[in-house]
C-alpha cells in the first residue's frame, strides 16, 4: 500500500511545528494509497476529532495529546489510532489491519498506539485518565511506551518459534519439504509449524491442509517450466484468510503477516487468498513466471 507524500509532510508539521491538533488518514482502495482526509486546527478539541471518524468506516489517525504529569509538568504525546468500527466492511478491516505497520513506519515519532472498534475504547478518559500514569495507560491498552521512541503494537510483536525458521531453511536449501503450514497460537502469542509436506506430496495434498474456516500462513515450493522449457522453482508465501474465519483471527493474522514474513528469508512470491479460487494452481503458474 503506497503512502502519499502529504501524509508524511503533514505528520512532520504536527510533530515539529504543532500546526495541527490531529490528522485523519484514509486508504483509497482503488489507488491503493493512504491519503490525508482531514486536518485539525491546533485549537480544535478532542470532540472535534472524534466527529471526523466515520461510524461505519475504518481510518487511521494521529492526535497530539496535551496532559499534565503527576508533578504538574505539561507534556504531550503523539497518539496513533487504528479506528476499525464493528460496523465497517470486513474487507476494509483486513486492508487497514494488514497495511497498518507499513504505514506507521512512515510516521517517525509515534509514541502511543490505540486500537479501537468503538468510541469507548478511545475515549478521552483512556487518553487522560487521571489515576493512570502514561506507562500504566499504555499497559492498559496493551501498548508499551518508551518515553522517547516509537512503539510496536502487540500484534507486530507476535513471537515466531525457532522451528518455523528451521523448517523453512530446510525447504529452501535442502528441499526436504514440499510445503509448510503455520498456525498462530493465540494464547502463547506465537507462530508455530502445524504441518510439513513431504517432497512427493502434491498441490492437492497441500490445499487439504488448509482449514475451510480458519486462517493460516503457508509456504509452498512450486516447480514449473519456463517458456523456454527450463525447469525452475519459486517459493510462494500464502496468507490464507477464508471468509468464514473469525474476524478477530483475520485481524491477528493480517497485522502479524509482515513481521512473520521477515523471518523467512527467501520468499519469492506472495498470495493472499480468501477462497480456493484465489490460490488455484493456475494462479501459481501465472505468478511464477
Automatic annotation (TrEMBL):
Keywords: Actin-binding. GO terms for biological process: actin filament depolymerization. One of its GO terms (cellular component) is actin cytoskeleton. GO terms for molecular function: actin binding. Residues 1-132, 155-289 form the ADF-H domain. Gene3D superfamilies: Severin. It holds the Pfam family Cofilin_ADF. SMART domains: ADF. Belongs to the actin-binding proteins ADF family. This is ADF-H domain-containing protein. It comes from Gossypium trilobum.
